[in-house]
Structures are given as structure tokens and as C-alpha cells.
């Protein structure tokens, strides 16, 4: 296995869609509103990618230090297992995390300077700070029942606003409403992934919705978030805040309902897969709906 194959495992490449799909949707909305620069978008997308990758690497490192991982990796939860499977040493993982965070911040600064949008750099710093604070002491947001909120903010309002601002120079109410939809979809992936880790989280005193309040409350929270996101789209379309085609995104709730069904029937891996599917469906349909509005 070469370096890049090991790296793709360590950064959990399949889960990078959680940041890339909302970024594409934000760019589509910016294009609809009359502002789009491909070079700037690519630079911002790369900065977001490295920030997300760094967050995953740091999470692996600090969870390893806390002993917060199962004896054997049997599914998509429990981190990448890159350290446990000796793909990289703990020192290599945290060094790559620091390097990726630094590269992301530098790139945000460069794009901010190039575009003249100073707020862009501040948003980039905020997103990277959340990524660092998610697992690193003394913050350890994911251990203090704040992981879901951090994920919502980082992958929703901050990410979508960053991309939209980089293209248009402003942040509209439409961009914020769209960010709520995506923030909730991404945080639901985190919720679904908590159930298989309940016992490990309790053992290491990692407070999550699942480990503190149980599977029933988690499933209710998941469903509430899915429909709240759909409601945000509905209200936005009704009040002409977002293009009418954006409403296609509410169809993602079908996959979210299926995820809850699998949670209650103890099919936890299937629930995680359906939560990812909800994000994929929501993203694709929102982008199609927005771009259709450009044509019509």
C-alpha cells in the first residue's frame, strides 16, 4: 500500500463528501445570484478539503490517546484505524493534521487577499478552529456534547457562507437558510454514527446524545433535524428567499426516514449509509433545482 492509499484511509476519504457537497451547493446558489469564479471556487474547495481532512486526522489522534476506539474496526465508525493498523504512527497523524490545518489557513488567507474579502479569512479561521477544538484538549467539543453543534456550524453556516462569500462578496439570507439545511444533514451523519460507539463513548466519558440520552432520543433528534432542514427550504422558497427548485432537496427526508427505521431495528451501519444518502440526495437535487432556475 503506497503513501497516498494509506493517506486516503487516514483522512476517511469517502466521508469528505460531507464538506464537498455543501460547497458545491453554495457555489450553485452563488452562480444563480450572478457571481461565480471557477479559480476562486477551486481554491476555496481545496482549503475546505484540507481543513476537513485535518479535522479527521486530529480526531483520530486524540481519540487514540483517549482510548476511544473499538477493539476491532467492523464498520464506518471508530475512526480510520490508521494508527491501530500501523498505517501511520500517532506522531505522523498529528503532524499531518497540523500541516493540513496550516495549509488550509494559508490558502484562506491567499484567497481573501486576492478577492479583497477580509471576512473570508475570518470565516476560514473559524472553520479551522472548530476542526481543532472538536477533539483537542482543553476544548474537546466532541466529548462535551457539543460535537453535534460544532458539526452543524462548521459544515453548515460557516462552510456555506465561506463559499458563497468567496463568489459574491456578501452573505445573503438565502445562503444562510441553505446552510441550515446542509448543516443539519451533515450533523445527522454524526448522529447516526454515534449508536455503534455508545459503549466505547461511555467507557471513555465521551458525552454524546447517544451515550447520555440513549438511542431513542437520538433517533428523535435525527428525525427532527431532517424535517427542520426541509422546513428551512420550504419557508425559503415560499418567501422567495431561495429559488423554487431548491425545494427538491426536501426529498432527502425519504432517506432520513429510512435511516431512522434502521436505527430502531438495530441496523446501525445501514442507518449511517442512509444518512449519507440523504446528504447526497439533498445536495444533488438542490444543485439541480438551483441551476434549473438559471435556465428558466
Summarize the structure.
The protein has 296 residues and is mainly alpha-helical.
Textual characterization of the structure:
This protein has a single domain (3-295), classed as Farnesyl Diphosphate Synthase. Helix 2 (17-32) packs parallel to helix 6, helix 3 (38-66) runs parallel beside helix 5 (118-133) and helix 7 (173-194) runs antiparallel to helix 12. The mean pLDDT is 95. It is mostly helical and 296 residues long. Helix content is 73%, strand content 0%. It has helices at 3-10, 17-32, 38-66, 90-115, 118-133, 147-168, 173-194, 198-203, 209-213, 215-238, 252-264, 268-295. It is built from twelve helices and no strands.
List descriptors:
single chain, 296 residues, mainly alpha, Farnesyl Diphosphate Synthase, 12 helices, globular
C-alpha geometry: globular
CATH architecture: Orthogonal Bundle
Regions with little confidence, pLDDT below 50 for 5+ residues? none
Task: Say how many strands there are.
Answer: 0
Portion of residues in beta strands equals under 5%
Q: In whole angstroms, how far apart are the ends?
A: 49 Å
Number of domains: 1
Q: Give the biggest beta sheet.
A: none
- The percentage helix is over 70%
Q: What topology does this entry show?
A:
Layout: H1 3-10, H2 17-32, H3 38-66, H4 90-115, H5 118-133, H6 147-168, H7 173-194, H8 198-203, H9 209-213, H10 215-238, H11 252-264, H12 268-295
Helix pairs in contact: 2-3, 2-6, 2-7, 2-12, 3-4, 3-5, 3-6, 4-5, 5-6, 6-7, 7-10, 7-12, 10-11, 11-12
Amino acid at each position: 500500500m503506497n503513501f497516498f492509499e494509506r493517506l486516503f484511509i487516514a483522512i476517511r476519504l469517502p466521508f469528505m463528501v460531507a464538506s464537498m457537497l455543501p460547497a458545491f451547493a453554495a457555489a450553485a446558489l452563488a452562480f444563480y445570484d450572478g457571481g461565480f469564479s471557477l479559480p476562486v471556487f477551486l481554491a476555496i474547495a481545496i482549503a475546505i478539503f484540507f481543513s476537513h481532512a485535518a479535522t479527521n486526522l486530529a480526531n483520530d489522534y486524540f481519540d487514540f490517546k483517549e482510548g476511544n476506539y473499538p477493539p476491532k474496526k467492523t464498520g464506518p465508525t471508530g475512526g480510520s484505524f490508521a494508527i491501530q493498523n500501523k498505517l501511520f504512527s500517532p506522531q505522523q497523524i498529528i503532524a499531518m493534521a497540523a500541516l493540513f490545518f496550516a495549509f488550509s489557513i494559508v490558502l484562506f488567507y491567499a484567497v481573501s487577499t486576492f478577492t479583497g474579502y477580509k471576512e473570508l479569512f475570518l470565516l476560514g479561521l473559524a472553520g479551522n478552529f472548530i476542526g481543532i477544538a472538536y477533539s483537542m484538549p482543553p476544548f474537546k467539543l466532541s466529548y462535551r456534547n457539543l460535537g453535534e453543534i460544532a458539526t452543524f456550524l462548521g459544515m453548515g453556516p460557516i462552510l456555506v457562507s465561506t463559499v458563497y462569500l468567496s463568489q459574491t462578496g456578501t452573505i445573503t439570507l438565502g445562503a444562510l437558510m441553505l446552510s441550515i439545511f446542509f448543516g443539519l444533514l451533515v450533523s445527522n451523519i454524526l448522529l447516526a454514527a454515534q449508536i455503534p460507539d455508545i459503549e466505547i463513548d461511555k467507557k471513555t466519558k465521551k458525552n454524546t446524545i447517544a451515550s447520555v440520552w440513549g438511542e431513542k432520543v437520538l433517533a428523535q433528534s435525527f428525525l427532527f433535524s431532517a424535517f427542520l432542514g426541509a422546513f428551512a427550504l420550504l419557508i425559503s422558497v415560499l418567501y422567495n428567499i431561495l429559488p423554487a427548485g431548491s425545494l427538491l432537496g426536501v426529498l432527502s427526508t425519504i432517506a432520513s426516514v429510512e435511516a431512522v427505521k434502521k436505527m430502531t431495528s438495530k441496523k446501525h451501519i445501514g442507518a449511517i449509509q442512509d444518512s449519507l444518502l440523504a446528504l447526497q440526495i439533498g445536495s444533488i437535487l438542490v444543485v439541480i433545482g438551483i441551476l434549473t432556475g438559471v435556465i428558466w
